[in-house]
Amino acid sequence: MIVYTIALPKGGGGKTAAAAELVWALVQAGLRVLAIDLDQQGNLSARMGITPDTELAGTTAEVIDASVEISDAAEPAPSLPGAHILVGAHDLTALEQAPPADLVTSLRDMLPAVADRWDAVVIDTPPNVGGLTLAGLAAADHVVAPVQAATEAYDQVERLEATIAERIARRVRPGQRVAAFIPTMVDRRRLLDREVLTALEERFGDRVTPPIRQGVAVRDAYTAGMTVSAYDPRSAVAQDFRAAMDHLLTTTRGAARA
Q1: In sequence order, which residues have a C-beta less than 8 Å from that of residue 157 and are 6 or more positions away?
Q2: Which residues are CB-contacts of 98 (< 8 A; sequence separation ≥ 6)?
């Protein structure tokens, strides 16, 4: 089992869309995929086709607090056959406010028990560096940071790296670092976008994937409860995502959890 965690302590930059596209790419590669939504807003769950009317056996919060087993709570993704989803819901807020003692290591310790059921896991984290994000980072084989082409998003890269170095890499998961950066919402006509893209490429080299441009297909796909690649596979944004995910999977191939 290989575990990808999508993280950046800033919202609105395409993080969840990238997580959904990674799930899609892994399914297309023939893998059995478990998506874990750690955000109480449940946006990844929505992109997987979960609606307020979906009957759930459990939520991500209930799995973390050991009320429900992962295998029981994992829902088949309605809009993405081949994937399952642990649904993010408002009970994650209560969990983080009164966390179990093992919150940070909870997913890291739980996932090996279901390695025979799923080949890959994609974890979407909240736009902060709280306990749930730390739990996602601790469980990851590969941390992936989608970075909007904006100064405020680029500035959060350093915060994410510092959090990993200080809270995760020292004791919880030695050697952890950001494995890949996905530039998002890029418009090459804008000087600032080109500057942010250049800064990422100069700083992180081949850890930076091809960029994702802006496009209405991202918003429309969310409304439809689908990934962009499933909703409008011919769109320019879907093509960008495929190039980015091909790069990501190529650079991380073969690094499965022992």
Answers
A1: 8, 145, 147, 178, 181, 200
A2: none
How is residue 142 written in tokens?
A: 């590969």
Q: What is the DSSP letter of 214?
A: -
Q: CB neighbours of 153 closer than 8 A, spacing ≥ 6? A: 8, 10, 13, 147, 196
CA distance 176 to 160: 12
Q: How far apart are CA 59 and CA 74, in angstroms?
A: 8
Closest by CA position to 79, among listed 16, 18, 20: 20
pLDDT of amino acid 184: 95
Residue type, 138: A
Question: Residues in the chain with pLDDT < 70?
Answer: 254-258
pLDDT tens digits, 14-60: 999 999 999 999 999 999 999 999 999 999 999 999 999 999 999 99
The residue type of 17 is: A
Q: Where are the beta strands (DSSP E) in 106-214?
A: 120-124, 142-148, 178-184
Q: φ and ψ at 50, to 5 degrees?
A: -75, 135
Residue for token digits 């080949």? 119
Supply the pLDDT for residue 10: 85
**pLDDT score of 13:** 81
Question: What integer pLDDT is reported at residue 255 of this predicted model?
Answer: 44
DSSP run (H or E) holding 204: helix 191-204
Domains, the chain: 2-252 (3.40.50.300)
Q: Are 8 and 162 in contact (CB under 8 A)?
A: no
Query: How many Cα atoms occupy the beta-carbon half-sphere of 45 within 13 Å?
Result: 28
Query: In 3-state terms, what secondary structure has residue 159?
Result: helix
